[in-house]
């Protein structure tokens, strides 16, 4: 989906977003677990985790990807055609 010159930047961006998402998820579920443990229902964290997983699966099912036989149009090709 990216040209050769943009590939390293794209991979670095994906890694950064992945690390932010991991930290946010650990913080959120740590907070949820702490609150549910105070009430004596720490097992309910599993249900919250399952709900987030189902929502994530729904988002992925609704996302669209380029067709398998599509080709990449880079900036050089786009400017020469105009």
Automatic annotation (TrEMBL):
Q: Which residues cross the membrane?
A: 20-37, 44-65
What keywords were assigned to this record?
Answer: Membrane, Transmembrane, Transmembrane helix
Recorded protein name is Uncharacterized protein
- Tell me the organism: Tolypocladium ophioglossoides (strain CBS 100239) (Snaketongue truffleclub)
């Amino acid at each position: 989906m990216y040209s050769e010159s943009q590939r390293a930047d794209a991979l670095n961006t994906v890694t950064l977003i992945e690390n932010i998402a991991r930290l946010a998820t650990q913080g959120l579920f740590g907070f949820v677990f702490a609150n549910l443990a105070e009430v004596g229902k720490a097992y309910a964290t599993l249900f919250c985790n399952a709900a987030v997983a189902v929502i994530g699966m729904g988002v992925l099912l609704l996302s669209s990807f380029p067709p398998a036989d599509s080709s990449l149009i880079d900036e050089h090709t786009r400017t020469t055609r105009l």
